Every structure is written in C-alpha cells, then in structure tokens.
Amino acid sequence: MIIQMDINTNIKINKLEDLNKLKPLMEGSNLKINKSQIARELGVDARTVGKYINGYKKPITRNRSSKLDKFYPIIKDLLSDESVQIFYYKRVLWQFLKDNYNLDCAQSSFRRYISKHEEFNNYFRKRRKNYSSKNAPMRYETGIGQQAQVDWKENMEFILSNGEVIKINIFVIILSYSRFRVYRLSLSKTQDVLFSFLNEAFEIFGGVPKELLTDNMKTIMDEPRTNYFKGKVNNRFQQFADDYGFKVCPCIAGKPNTKAKVEAPMKLLDEIRAYNGRLNYSELHQLITKLNNRINSTCHTTTGKIPILHLEKEKDFLSELPKAQIRNLYSIKTIPVTVNPQSMINYKSNQYSVPPEYIGKRLKLQVYDDKLHIYYSTNLITIHTIKKQKLNYHPEHYIAISSLTLKNSIEEIEEIAKNNLKMIGEIYGDN
Questions:
Q1: Which domains, from first to last, does the chain contain?
Q2: How far apart, in whole angstroms, are the C-alpha atoms of residue 158 and residue 165?
Q3: Are the C-beta atoms of 329 and 154 separated by less than 8 Å?
Q4: CA-CA distance, 112 to 379, in Å (whole number)?
Q5: I need a labelling partner for 23 at 20 to 30 A (CA). Which of 14, 61, 202, 217 fits?
C-alpha cells in the first residue's frame, strides 16, 4: 500500500510497523489519515492502526521467569564434573530433586527446562553415549501366574558417605504378568543368599509362579544353555525348584533380551548412583526399599496398571507356598534379640546399637555378608559390620541415646558424643 501526500511524497506501508512513518508528517503538516481505510487494507482494527502510528512496538520476546530457576545452581552443582553423583536420565534427576529438594513440578515441565540449557543437555548426551543397548528385544507376554524373571545387577560401585567405595549386587525378581517386583541388596551372590531372597520374594508374592526364567548364573546352572544344548541345572538349585514346585527355564547364553521384562527394570536402579557419597550402608538398604515400593505403586508404562494392585489378581493363580518347615531350610537364619536399656542388642558376647525407640522391644537378627541385619517386624532398622569390639555404636544412635538424658543443645550433645565414642573406641577396640 502506497499513501500519496500533497507534498509529492510517497510512503510505502507494507506492515503495521511502517505506520510510525506517518506521525512526523501528521504533526508537521496537520495531515489527516483515514485510519479505517488503512485498517481495511492491512486487515486489522482501526484502533490498532492508531497505536502503531503513535509508535507502539510489539515485544519481540517475553522474559518469563520459571519457578525452576531457583533450582538452577543446585542442578549445575549436581551435574558438574566435580560431583561424584551420576545421573543417566533426566527422570532420575527429577526424582532426586523431588525427594531431596522439594521440587514440585511435572516431569514433562522439568524435561523442557533442562532442554533449554545446553550445558545440562550435553551432560545427559555424554552419559547416554554408548550406554543404551542397540538390541531390540522381542515383545511377548505370559499368562497370569505363569512366570517370574530373576536377575542380578552385579558389581555396581557405590561410594558410601564416609568415602569408602564398595561393590554391591542387587537381586531383582519380577512377576511377568503383574510386573510386581522385589529388590534386595547384598555384597555377595552366594547360593544361600539367592535361596533366601527367592524364598522371601515368594512369601511376598503369596505364592510361587509355574516357571522361573533366569540367565546362566553359576548358582543355578552347572552348564549353560546354548543353541545346541539345554544346559544343566545344578543339583542343589533343582532341589530348591522341586521343593517350591516351579520349572527352571534358563535363557540361551549370550541372549539376555529373552528376559527383557527383568532387564528393563534394572535401568531404574541407576537412580542409586544419584546418591553416591550421601548414604551409609544401612541407608542404602533403605533407599532400595523406598525405590522398590515406589515402583510397585506407580502405573507401569507398558501395561498401564499399578503392579501392587495387579498382584492381588495374580495371587489367585500362583501355586501354594511349601510348608514352613521346607521354607525354613532355605532362609537365612533369623535370631530373636531384645534391646537392652542402653539401646543395644547382643551378638556373640558383643553389643551393637539400635535407635533408642526400640528399647525393650523384640527384634530379629540375620547374619550374612559379614554383617548384622537387624529388623523390627519386616522393616530393616540398621546394619552393623561384625567386629570383635565389645561395644559397637553407630554415631547417630549414640547421639539419639545421649539426647534422652542430656539437656544440652544438639550441637553440644554431638560434640560430647564424638568425644565419648572416641574414648569407647580406645577402651573397647578390637582385641
């Protein structure tokens, strides 16, 4: 559109932003503009024409702050090269911030925020490089109560809060139909530990599936299954299978994708790496339990159902558990202990601390991996390394016990406890 002026001037108006060219002429020569005609030509309202003649400019961008901006320094610190914590997935970082920093936003919103920051995106790209498998597992489903799949996440390095690096093994068994699973943590993968974990899982399931799909681990197979050989189950595990009434179904060696239902949930355990350097061994156990409970209570992405609710339906199709006398043969021995007034339990003439709220209560003690695992009902409350030392306290227990008698401030109690524990160590140290 060209506006022709009486003063031999042509002004080209191609867009709204060109209208501000008219204002100097209107002010200098009392020029009157037909705003309605211009509006019709440009396809806008006449009032909009007036705004742009008077110099209005549409904002190019809007600077909107995000409620996630306050988490930027935390995220930057967690994803820095100096951090011992590891995050392979944005989902894991989102969950970690929810659990530890009160993040309150949808996972989709968090992903968008991360995507807007190239330094964060680069972190995940580097972590994921060469990490995911290129093999596509064949999709199949099994009947209700028919199958469970079992595996270990082996030799996973974890940094404890005291800086010690340990190698942990995480057992997982998953019912193929309901997708309900059980995770257990151990430093070893002995057959006795495997039997105990399987027995515990079957008791939690409320029955036994018809078959157990597994890989060729040495605690199960004397000779691996191949394309040309069915493999050989070792005698002790076959006896265990016969006692519980399930069939052992080993995968073909080198083809773990055959049991993809249990392989995929292993990726969820990468969340553990986010807690490197933050937890002691007992707290790591508690984290595994918390993770296990959350996954079983969350809608499964494939089935669209919540495993813990779907388990109730599957229970009716599982085989009955063997009698208690048989199950006890495969369980790690449980010792009943009573907590004394000093909030200690006795094991082989030495004493080990528990939180003071359990004083006078009856607890259960299991011994494996050279550690004492102490339970109240089915809840693991603490773990102690077995020592020759007469008195064995966890510092947090001693502080809690001291708080029952001392009226000092918490800072003073912590200092007193620190000095007392040092003296106890010198007097009652290993013989």
A1: 2-53 (no CATH), 69-128 (no CATH), 147-324 (3.30.420.10), 333-427 (no CATH)
A2: 6
A3: no
A4: 38
A5: 61
Q: Which residues face 185 on adjacent strands?
A: 170
- Cβ count near 1 (within 10 Å): 12
Query: How many helices and strands (H and E) does the chain possess?
Result: 15, 16
DSSP per-residue letters across 267-317: GGGGGGGGGTTT--HHHHHHHHHHHHHHHHTS--TTT-S-HHHHHHHHHTT
pLDDT digits (tens, 9 = 90+) for 345-381: 999 999 999 999 999 999 999 998 889 999 998 788 9
347, β-bridge pairs: 350
CB 311 within 8 A of CB 204: no
**Could you give the CA distance from residue 48 to residue 60 in angstroms, rounded to a whole number?**
17
Residues 6+ apart with CB under 8 A from 366: 332, 333, 334, 335, 372, 373, 375
DSSP class of residue 258?
Answer: G
Among 134, 204, 138, CA closest to 174: 204
Q: Which region among 54-58, 172-176, 307-311 has the lowest average model confidence (pLDDT)?
A: 54-58
Tell me which residue has tokens 């991360």: 114
CB 177 within 8 Å of CB 150: no
